[in-house]
Amino acid sequence: MxxxxxxxxxxxPTANLVDIAILLIIFYMACSxxxxxxxxxxxxxxxxxxxxxxxxxxxSVDQEGTIMLQGHEAANAAEVEAVxxxxxxxxxxxxxxxxxxxFKCDATVKRQVYQPVLDAIVHAGGLILAVGENTxx
Amino acid sequence: MRRKFHMRQLxxxxxxxxxxxxxxxxxLIFFIMTTTLARTTGFITDVPMGTKGAQQxxxxxxxxxxxxxxxITVNEDQxxxxxxxxxxxxxxxxxxxxxxxxxxIISAEGVVPYQMYYETLAMVQNASGVVAIVSDEVEKK
Lengths: 137, 141
Fold this sequence. Notes:
Helix content of chain B: 40-55%
Radius of gyration of chain A: 25 Å
Shape of chain A: elongated
Structural class of chain B: alpha/beta
Largest interface: A-B, 49 and 41 residues
Helix content of chain A: 25-40%
Low-confidence stretches of chain A: none
Number of strands of chain A: 8
Radius of gyration of chain B: 31 Å
Mean pLDDT of chain B: 77
Shape of chain B: elongated
Largest sheet of chain A: 5 strands, mixed
Strand content of chain B: 15-25%
Oligomer: heterodimer
Distance between the termini of chain A: 79 Å
């Protein structure tokens, strides 16, 4: 009977694995965007749109015509105007970056729904950042 | 014997990190699944506010686009398709103009889906124009 020498299994060093995982988590945490919009929303499409930085204030109108302001449902455009007015209270007209309000709206929504919201943002002193999807010409 | 075993347990000063990797990978999977790396695209528009009287005087010079029930009418009499409107606006050479000459008045009547409205706004914005929106509220004044 031949005795074979015992081979030790190679050990994979896993000590640094946690460090790599932590680095990846930090990366994803930094890149994540948790500002979600409830309801179905298909953004409009247009060519030559450019990349923009998302501002702190967001208003969205979903397929059903539900107005969401900062992730919470707003009753009507008047409420949007009142809340944005308060949020932009200390912002001067020259401070364009801080006055920006992100407006997301479903492509199929009718004028009677989106127009009062756009008016409300303008009346409250906001600068509209209209979000859409880029298409080729 | 029992005491000796107990002492050995107490002297262990290393923090157990064996399950740390598992937790980290669970978090990692969560973030990978929820992250959207695509950046937001759109355009920024500073819509000027004005009275009806001011708009009328501006409309003498500024081109006006009326969106109504899926149709586009330019300067009150020319009906255009979206492509024709694009050509018309690029032909205005708004980037070479200054002040009020940059203004394009956009109004919507009846049923106008946001897609159509958005495309028109984006068109004027990309041509370096200034959008003036005529809203119902202003029209009533």
